[in-house]
Write a structure and sequence with these properties.
YbgC/YbaW; alpha+beta; fatty acyl-CoA hydrolase activity; 3 helices; 150 residues; seven-stranded antiparallel sheet; Thiol Ester Dehydrase, Chain A; elongated; single chain; hydrolase
Length: 150
C-alpha cells in the first residue's frame, strides 16, 4: 500500500476538514478471492489516523518525545464492511473528528472508492502515558476539535 495524494480538504464550519489519504490496493492486501482481506482495512484506517495526526501535530515520534512519552492507542473500534475492494483499486481513507473527551477522541473513518463507501468505522483513541490515560494536549485538542467543542 502506498500513499497517493495525502492531504486535507478546504475549511469546514463543523471543525477541521476531513483528512483524506489515498491508498492503492496491492496483491498483498487481498485474500485468495481477490478481494481486500478484512484485516488490511485496519492498516488502511491506522494510516489514515496517523496521517491526520501528522497533518495537525507533526510526527508522532516528535509528539511522543516532546510530550514526555505520550502515545495514542485504539480503545474501541466498530466497523461495517459494506462493499469489497479489489487489487489495483484506488481508495481514499477519510478521517474526521466526531468528539473529544478528556483523554480520548472519537473518530469517524471511511474507506471509499470514488463516491462509494466500502468500509465505515467508528474509532475511540485514548491518549496514554506510562500506561495511564492522560488529557489530550491542549494544542492538539484545539486542532482536532469538531466545531467549537474545544
Amino acid at each position: 500500500m502506498s500513499a497517493i495524494e495525502p492531504g486535507t480538504d478546504g475549511p469546514s464550519e463543523d471543525g477541521p476538514p476531513p483528512h483524506r489519504l489515498g491508498v492503492r490496493v496491492y496483491y498483498e492486501d487481498t485474500d485468495f478471492s481477490g478481494f481486500v482481506y478484512h484485516a488490511s482495512y485496519l492498516r488502511f484506517l491506522e494510516r489514515g489516523r496517523t496521517e491526520l495526526l501528522r497533518a495537525l501535530a507533526g510526527d508522532q515520534s516528535d509528539l511522543h518525545r516532546d510530550a514526555r512519552g505520550l502515545v495514542f492507542v485504539v480503545r474501541r473500534m466498530s466497523l461495517d464492511f459494506l462493499r469489497p475492494a479489489r487489487m489495483d483499486d484506488l481508495l481514499t481513507v477519510v478521517t474526521r473528528t466526531r468528539a473529544l473527551r478528556g483523554a480520548s477522541m472519537q473518530l469517524a473513518q471511511e474507506v471509499r472508492r470514488a463516491d462509494a463507501v466500502l468500509v465505515a468505522a467508528e474509532v475511540t483513541v485514548a491518549c496514554v502515558r506510562d500506561g495511564r490515560a492522560v488529557r489530550l494536549p491542549d494544542a492538539l485538542r484545539r486542532r482536532l476539535a469538531p466545531g467549537d467543542a474545544a
